[in-house]
TrEMBL record:
Coiled coil: none annotated. Residues 273-290 have a biased composition (Basic and acidic residues). This is Hydroxysteroid dehydrogenase-like protein 2. Pfam families: adh_short (PF00106), SCP2 (PF02036). NCBIfam families: PRK08278.1. The gene is Hsdl2.
Length: 406
């Protein structure tokens, strides 16, 4: 689609490129005719994770790039050094480093085993640091060198630390590499960070979220497109912490539904298509029974709420609601009617909730379909409310408007 191939002949050294985001970035560059060094540790087929450095290499060559698969566990400095030397011997240099290899465990301090702490610190912080250090002498010789770390903007709000302290420290360690190296090599090498606005659907995500998680995720394409955008900018573009969607909006992308696994359109045709796709998906996954699971009533309710969100609701409500649901399909959900154009989702809200409501998931669905009045639920003890009561009452008003849709 590009009038000219901006990364043609460039050499990219990508850690963790055998699957997921790393591979998606590799394939996007391969279409331009780039050389890709696949620096990843999966050389033999993994029992549960798809792809090896060799299958990735085949896909990269098929897409129009040149591939050099190298077995690299970024915890082993010698493996990094060997791969970098081999890359330089094969392609004559290195123009771009993508630090994508990452280990994740979203666990609390007491639940995180020491070996997991070591893994996250060694892969995420130390691995990124050493790979950057090893590539830098070659990057400095390139015409338009870039380092891109897949890591978040550093927000020191305790919210981002409290549920998974070790993981956050390790990812912020990668972001600190951006902060330091961008300044240290200013004018010589661009160093930036890229992070998704919403969860990206990869094998790692399936492990974390279990079945059905992809509904709330975007395809890897959005990260690959954003990465391409950064890597084709001049090296004066440095020290930035970029969110994929924000960058692509600036570049003129309007339709983000294209990146959704389950696009957020509520019309039935799309629904039918999605359920056909879902059936195909669940049949192609050999994990467990091959029935396509419909959305649970709770998830369905939130999907409708999401669809009904409006600037007006947000303006008039100005509250963040958290729901603690017990029973089938329970868990923590939220409705944010405070920030921007509002959002809903599974898990804790992005900002502290003003109101926390606890009830059974069955009663929740009844409440949102107009079969149970919140006041009645509260009086009869089916609904417990903590926090701002005035906001709790505002939600009831919104419900009556919503019921027509549900």
């Amino acid at each position: 689609s590009l009038p000219f191939r901006k990364l043609a002949g460039c050499t990219l050294f990508i850690t963790g490129a055998s699957r997921g985001i790393g591979k998606a970035i590799a394939l996007k560059a391969a279409k331009d005719g780039a050389n890709i060094v696949i620096a990843a540790k999966t050389a033999e087929t993994h029992p549960t994770l798809p792809g090896t450095i060799y299958t990735a290499a085949a896909e990269i060559e098929a897409a129009g790039g040149k591939a050099l698969p190298c077995i690299v566990n970024v915890r082993e400095e010698q493996q990094i050094i060997n791969a970098v030397e081999k890359a330089v011997k094969t392609f004559g240099g290195i123009d771009i480093l993508v630090n994508n290899a990452s280990a994740i465990s979203l666990t609390g301090t007491l639940e995180t085993e020491t070996k997991k702490v070591n893994l996250m610190m060694e892969v995420n912080v130390r691995g990124t640091y050493l790979t950057s250090k090893t590539c830098l002498p070659y990057l400095r010789k390139s015409r338009n060198p870039h380092i891109l770390n897949l890591s978040p903007p550093m927000n020191l709000n305790p919210l981002w630390f409290k549920n998974h302290c070790a993981y956050t420290i390790s990812k912020y360690g990668m972001s600190m590499c951006v902060l330091g190296m961008a300044e240290e090599f200013r004018g010589e090498v661009a160093v930036n960070a890229l992070w998704p606005k919403t969860a990206i659907h990869t094998a790692a995500m399936d492990m974390l979220g279990g079945a059905g998680i992809e509904k709330q995720c975007r395809k890897t394409d959005i990260i690959a497109d954003a990465a391409y955008c950064i890597l084709t900018k001049p090296k004066s573009f440095t020290g930035n912490f970029i969110i994929d969607e924000d960058l692509l909006r600036e570049e003129g992308v309007k339709d983000f539904d294209a990146y959704a696994i389950a696009p957020g359109k509520a019309d039935l045709e799309d629904e039918k298509e999605a359920s056909k796709e879902e059936k195909k998906l669940s049949e192609s996954h050999q994990e467990g029974p091959s029935e396509a699971k419909a959305l649970s009533p709770v998830a369905e309710t939130f999907r409708v709420i999401q669809g009904a969100m409006s600037e007006e609701y947000v303006r008039t409500t100005q509250g963040v609601y958290q729901f603690e649901l017990s029973g089938d399909e329970g868990g923590t959900w939220y409705i944010d009617l405070k920030t921007k154009s509002g959002s809903v989702g599974f898990g804790k809200p992005p900002v502290t909730a003003d109101v926390v409501m606890s009830m059974s998931s069955t009663d929740f669905v009844k409440m949102f379909t107009g079969k149970l009045k919140p006041t009645m639920a509260f009086m009869s003890g089916k609904l417990r409310i903590k926090g701002n009561m005035a906001l709790a009452i505002k939600l009831e008003k919104m419900l009556s408007k919503l019921n027509s849709k549900l």
